[in-house]
Amino acid sequence: MYKNLRQYIDRLESAGQLVRVAAEVDPVYEIAEITDRISKMAGGGKALFFENTGTGFPVLTNMMGSDARIAAALGAGSLDEITARLDTLVSEALSPKEGFWEKLSMLPLLAGAARWMPRKSGGRGECQQVVYRGDAADLSLLPVLKCWPGDGGRFITLPLVHTVDPVTGARNVGMYRMQVTGKNSTGMHWHLHKTGERHYREYKKSGRRMPVTVCLGGDPVYTYCATAPMPDNLDEYLLAGFLRDRSVRLVECLTNGLYVPSDCDFVIEGYVDPAEDKFMEGPFGDHTGFYSLEDLYPRFHITAITHRQDAVYPATIVGIPPQEDVYIAKATEKIFLAPIRAAVQPEITDIYMPPAGVAHNLALVSIDNSYPGQAFKVAGSMWGAGQMMFNKIMIVAGADTDLRDPRQVAACIRGLCIPQDVLFSRGVLDVLDHSTAVTGFGGKLMLDITPGRQSGRVALPENIPLPEGAAAVETSLALEWAAVLVGCDNGRQIDLKGLARALKWSGIKFIVAVDMAVLKLCPEEILWHAAGNFDPVRDATIVEGIITADARTKMPFREGLPVRVPNVVVSSPETIALVDGRWPEYGLGDFIGSPSRRYRPLMYGEEAEAR
Description:
Largest sheet: 9 strands, antiparallel
Number of helices: 18
Helix content: 25-40%
Number of strands: 30
Shape: globular
Radius of gyration: 25 Å
Strand content: 15-25%
Distance between the termini: 49 Å
């Protein structure tokens, strides 16, 4: 694996996977706009190394934003190599060992596990070559990015946030965005369901300050592991040790007693005081493609900043997919498939989270289907398993369906029998899901396509009535996906039931109302926007064997809708024009236009909150 982040950068550069930008660039807006253009290229573009940021440190973005780079970050030639290793590990660990020789064969496995355990060492690490304490620990020294015009400030976007359970002593390393609120303070964005928040509540009970340390950089496997859906109280650095087949060397922080990897680029030490009132953090242009709006979160106080002499500041850009996080999610699908099969549902053969589903809105699962109702059992258990509890829409297919082949999935969807193959439920959702009336709680939907009926045919009538209140009916998705779109202005009542009755015998399975501007998007973009603005229980009904759904932006016009609604995340016209004009200076090849131009018609006003 890698001794430090610089070694990984060298590998990317030698493989033609990194571009250096020598021109001076601004961490406020400009780096994000350049990165957004590159990361939305086919295959994820290249990693970007901004050498001149107006500070003493370069910035690295999009470092894991391709199939090749995420595999390289995890020390593998491909993600399939990691899947094979885990399959072997899990099968060996769980299979019964009856004879002496079989038990003896486990010794190499146990020896390997010992190598993976993180190890504390004395003395200082490379991450502590330069030290700033007290008032000298100033975040303005770092090239912290501000990415989008509605953001509440600059945000650290790739932090490895270290906390310790005060009851068990177990370490957690999570990734929670951090809004800079002063030269030595930030927000700490701990959602209600996250381990960091649970640790915070335990410290609050005991009336003690909570030590917190944030790392940036180092071996890129650390960054991945901080995003991984690890079980509570299982150390992320154990996973890192497994992936790199070498233990992580930890050194003690200078001011709070926590331990961190010695090879990180930056270490930000400090504490959170649970006795303090939370403060209003945000907004932030999030990975959902929409802003997460202001809310109350704890404040992190900084007591020291240390760094390597050759430190690189790593950052990621999130927003409308696809972005770098798409490839991080791919790794999670591969790495955690074997543990899910072993611990949750052995019949699961594959899991796929399409980029348009932004991780939690949509998941496709394939299973070895043996009996009626099995898909319903799998959905119930998955909705209660770890971070899969946040899933909103699940499609369960048979093992012979390739989840990554849209044609195969569409063929099975055309064979749906509604309502027999449909499950509506309610449960926990991601706090970032803005479609719900109650934060973090709302409707769920499962479609059972395990029967694999592929004989569904769509035959639309010659004259399709325009529903009352609608402005347009779009049928371009009808033949393949058995879906009809209805364009309608927000706030208007719309009669989808009448249209469903008119299409009763057509083979159509879905009628979806969307914002008028959405009709101009491609199918993946339509899915992203519609899934983000849809609560299955509140917004869907079944009429004549057709699911009708209102997936328009939910303005707060009536009871039962969200109190606040976020805008989509796009760059300002001024930033777009700046980057357009400077493009030849960056040395990035042929001109690439701004993706934000395509999405600006989806906005309601210019603020983070839609109005």
